[in-house]
Amino acid sequence: MRARLRETAEELAGLLWREYIVYRDRAGEVVIRGEHVQRWISLAPAGGSDEVLVRAGRILDGGTTAPARSETVVPLSAGMGDLAAACRRLLAETAAAPAPRDPGAARGGRAEKVAKSRHGRKGRHTGLGSWVVIACVLGVAGLCAYRIVVHGG
Predict the structure, then answer these.
(1) 2-16 vs 80-96: helix crossing angle, rounded to 10
(2) For the chain, N or C: smaller number of CB within 10 Å?
(3) Which of 9, 14, 17, 7 is nearest to 38 (CA)?
């Protein structure tokens, strides 16, 4: 079945996209990547011996793949035309779905958030809270200097 999936994926990729990469992932699925359209499709054996699970998703910036947006089961006996039509439908659903969140934000991309917040400021580098702290420190230093001058030590 795995050899048949690979052959099917090669033929299917040629029908769907002009540029593609076909490979087998860690889970044993055959993946077709269309880098120029930022989409992927995977084929995996389904419950029946003649059925294939087809999943579609997006390729994120940096080349990582987002989780599948949609999936369906297609019988291989239906033919390449039906399989290609199912894939096109899944790809259309994937394109219509909202864009995936930024993966850096999901991992707690604090540096990006800080950088973005700094770009929004115009001209002011020191906030009000910082000025209050500076004033308190200067006040304490002035009080110490006053005590030294007035009381002599």
Answers:
(1) 60
(2) C
(3) 17
Mean pLDDT for 119-124 is 54
The whole-angstrom separation of Cα 24 and Cα 3 is: 11
Contact present, 44 and 52 (Cβ < 8 Å): yes
What is the average pLDDT score of the chain?
A: 82
Starting at the edge strand found earlier in the chain, the sheet holding 30-34 runs 21-24, 30-34, 39-45, 51-58, 70-75
pTM above threshold 0.70: no
Kindly give the residue spans of alpha helices, DSSP state H, lying in the chain: 2-16, 80-96, 103-106, 110-119, 128-151
Residue written as tokens 């011996």?
49
The answer to whether residues 134 and 125 touch, using CB atoms and an 8 Å cutoff, is no
Neighbours of 35 (CB within 10 A): 13
pLDDT in tens, 54-96: 999 999 888 888 888 899 999 988 899 999 999 999 999 888 7
Rounded-to-integer distance, Cα 12 and Cα 16, Å: 6
Q: How confident is the model at residue 108 (pLDDT cuts 50, 70, 90)?
A: very low
Task: Give, as one character, the DSSP assignment of residue 103.
Answer: H
Specify which residues 34 forms β-bridges with.
39
